[in-house]
Write a structure and sequence with these properties.
Blueprint (H helix, E strand, L loop, with lengths): L1 H23 L13 E2 L1 E13 L4 E4 L2 H11 L3 E6 L16 H15 L4 E6 L12 H8 L4 E3 L10 H10 L23 H7 L8 E7 L2 E7 L12 E7 L1 H18 L20 E6 L1 H13 L5 E6 L5 H12 L3 E6 L4 E2 L2 E2 L5 H10 L3 E5 L9 E6 L5 E6 L5 H4 L6 E7 L4 H15 L4 E2 L1 E3 L8 H13 L5
Parallel strand pairs: 4-5, 5-6, 11-12, 12-15
Antiparallel strand pairs: 1-10, 2-3, 2-9, 2-19, 4-7, 7-8, 8-9, 10-18, 11-16, 13-14, 15-20, 16-17, 17-18
Length: 476
């Protein structure tokens, strides 16, 4: 009995120490960075939108991956892409979804085939192979063309769900996975998967970045977006920023870090990259990753003065510091608008509204104006914060990061850009106009709905959200 107690105490000590270490351990070098502001040329705000007319018919307008494919087609020697989802999972029919994944993969493969000796690299998340539980033909197509595909080594990252991940690291990570012999139902497709797929999935972390860097005819060009080349995501609302200049080189360097800790390679990532040359531009842009995005968002919210316009458009909003900062901004007289996804749809599956409806309850009670995207099966997947002061330059923060603990507190890999420019500068004006049309709706178009449409005053669900956010026992 005494030996049994000591064994259990020892096992508990290993469990607790493993969970604590991987919750707070140092990040790999090159993550959690903020770069200096650089003058940038060709800065564009791009968007995909699905909207409903007054007869209830849906329409989709897309710009982001048309721009991405154009960048690939014009690249002279190098393409580096990092996208969370590159797959056809949960796409019910070709008629309902644009085949973004195959367009992206074929576009990259064809470009590479036409330019012998050029280099390309795709960095992605292991969810595309269900953590090694299935074969992913799209990624195999790139590798057959000689384009390296790096699956991010998520084990190097911190664990947002330590209650489970400590157990997984002790008992389960050593068994790897297999794409043969699965017996459990596939959560996103038809091919059976192993139990090890589900055990890895419960770690609830990802390389959630969505970036593209190329060397085009006018110099280095970067694209940072909230969108994925993923068929079932093709009808989502998304945003992107495309730009040229030194910030694109900074973006390339942030991807070097992921390639290095994931497989120790610098394939397709040259050590020396020459800048485009001196740029005289009124638009400044910088790259932020991981928790630096949180810091920038809080700085923007805290800097908003009474009478300033502050607009937030977000797929998932749950981070407690962000919520508190928004409520404080409202109390000091900032003109604040929050546009949220109702969190009711996930690729054909119905959701319960967590966490946005619970956060909206809190914001609405504090006087914040909240509206819902008028989704009809798709998701309002955009992530952007726009501050327009009464005097001075405006600031736009946009990219892959949801405003949640998992996305902002150094668990996921994320990339955003932050732009400073006069309010009348095209990139700022376009972002503002796009938000305004979603907020107010346009003649004949229904983009958003009032708060009461999805209001949820359940205190039980509110505290469920708070528990999930605090512990990491959630997919948001």
């Amino acid at each position: 009995m005494r030996r049994g107690r000591w064994f259990l105490l020892g096992l508990l000590a290993v469990y607790l120490s493993t969970g604590a270490y991987h919750l707070y351990k140092p990040l790999p070098e090159g993550l959690d960075v903020v770069t200096p502001y650089h003058p940038a040329e060709g800065v564009e705000f791009l968007a995909d939108a699905t909207w409903t007319d007054t007869q209830g018919n849906q329409h989709t307008e897309q710009e982001i991956f048309d721009a991405a494919l154009e960048m690939i087609g014009q690249a002279q020697s190098l393409v580096v892409a990092d996208f969370f989802l590159v797959n056809q999972f949960a796409a019910t029919s070709e008629a309902a979804h644009r085949p973004l994944s195959s367009e992206f993969v074929l576009g990259l493969a064809e470009w590479h085939a036409q330019r012998p000796g050029v280099e390309a690299l795709l960095i992605t998340d292991p969810f595309n192979t269900l953590y090694g539980g299935i074969k992913q033909p799209l990624l195999s197509r790139l590798e057959a063309q000689g384009i390296p595909v790096i699956e991010t080594d998520l084990r190097a990252l911190r664990d947002p769900n330590p209650l489970w991940s400590a157990t997984w690291r002790i008992c389960c990570q050593w068994f790897g996975n297999s794409s043969h012999g699965g017996w459990l139902p596939n959560p996103v497709g038809d091919t059976p998967v192993t139990l090890r797929t589900y055990l890895a999935l419960l770690n609830f972390k990802a390389n959630h970045r969505k970036t593209l860097v190329t060397d085009g005819p006018d110099g280095w060009t970067g694209l940072v977006t909230s969108g994925n080349p993923h068929d079932a995501s093709s009808r989502h609302d998304n945003i992107a920023v495309r730009f040229r200049g030194a910030a694109a080189i900074d973006l390339l360097h942030t991807e070097r870090a992921v390639a290095e800790f994931s497989n120790g390679t610098r394939t397709a990532l040259p050590d020396r990259v020459e800048a485009n040359g001196a740029v005289d531009s009124p638009v400044g842009i910088r790259v932020l990753t991981e928790s630096r995005i949180r810091d920038a968002a809080l700085d923007m919210i805290d800097a908003a003065d009474p009478g300033d316009q502050l607009d937030l458009w977000m797929f998932y909003l749950s981070h407690r510091a962000i919520v508190k900062a928004l409520l404080a901004a409202q109390q000091r007289g900032v003109d604040l608008r929050v546009l949220l996804d109702p969190n009711r749809d996930a690729f054909g599956r119905k959701k319960q509204g967590l966490p946005n409806r619970q956060v909206a309850l809190e914001l609405n009670a504090g006087g914040v104006s909240v509206r819902w995207c008028n989704t009809q099966g798709e998701q309002c997947h955009a992530k952007m914060l726009l501050h327009r002061p009464r005097d001075g330059d405006a600031t736009l923060l946009a990219g892959s990061a949801n405003f949640t603990r998992r996305n902002l507190d150094n668990f996921n890999l994320e990339t955003n850009v932050q732009i400073q420019a006069e309010a009348g500068t095209p990139v700022i004006a376009d972002a503002a106009q796009f938000f305004d049309t979603r907020w107010h709706n346009e003649p004949g178009r229904v983009h958003s709905l009032p708060y009461q449409e999805y209001a949820d005053d359940s205190r039980l669900r509110y505290w469920r959200y708070r528990m999930m956010e605090a512990t990491g026992l959630s997919s948001f």
